[in-house]
Amino acid sequence: MELIVSLDPEVMQIAGRSMMLAAVSCCIATLLFLPLGSIIHFNQFHGKRVVLNVIQTLYSVPTVAVGLFVFVFISNAGPFGSLGLLFTPAAIIIGQVILIAPVITGLTISALSGVDRAVNETAVSLGASRTQAMVLVTREARFAILAALTMGFGRAVSEVGVSLMVGGNIRGFTRTFTTAISLETSRGDLELSLALGMILVFLALGVNIIMNQIQHRKE
To answer: Where along the chain do its domains lie?
Structure first.
């Protein structure tokens, strides 16, 4: 607790970097996969149920599996090895985007599915175009979608496999909450590990409170 109260530079640096990487990953994933979720929801196509099942299955994909997948592609022997992304913050962001993509896509679909069909039907009957009706339905689901984005951020900031495998846990460069806790615990520096763990727990609590507030506003 003393390290937190005294705003220990190393603790603050790790905390700031972890939240920054998670926030950037969440923003990128939102820009890419919120529209994808909307497209899947508003369109009927053969195999849609299978696609939905796959997305839901990927909610709990192990972070080390995502880390391994990204590592294979950006390592020196991989197809993107020449870009020099391995063991950089960019590699962590790529991995986290992939990790939370199913969460944001799937929960966006669920949020849109929760809107009463009468909203879309009424809009169309009043002369709204398909695009206008889609925008209206999305607006009605905005609180549920915001909850999905919050959950995506929570998933990104608390992961360990991606950061460890493609970030390298480099001090002052790619070290995050989870990788620092793992390293410092193995070194016997429990004070730093506990400080970082407490901040991570507070963050998880904050995410949960925000989601509850969003759900309350929705109701």
So the answer is: 2-110+140-218
Q: Tokens 């369109």 identify what position?
A: 43
Look at residues 136, 114, 198, 145 and name the one whose alpha carbon lies nearest to residue 26. Answer: 145
DSSP string, the chain: -HHHHTT-HHHHHHHHHHHHHHHHHHHHHHHHHHHHHHHHHH---TTHHHHHHHHHHGGG--HHHHHHHHHHHHSTTSTTGGG--TTSHHHHHHHHHHHHHHHHHHHHHHHHHTS-HHHHHHHHHTT--HHHHHHHHHHHTHHHHHHHHHHHHHHHHT--HHIIIIITT-TTTT--HHHHHHHHHHHT-HHHHHHHHHHHHHHHHHHHHHHHHHHHHH-
In this structure, the number of other CB atoms found within 10 A of the CB of residue 57 comes to: 11
What is this structure's pTM?
0.91
Q: What is the pLDDT of residues 22-71, one digit of tens each?
A: 999 999 999 999 999 999 999 989 999 999 999 999 998 999 999 999 99
**If you classify domain 2-110+140-218 with CATH, what class do you get?**
mainly alpha
- Residue 102 near residue 29 (C-beta atoms within 8 A): no
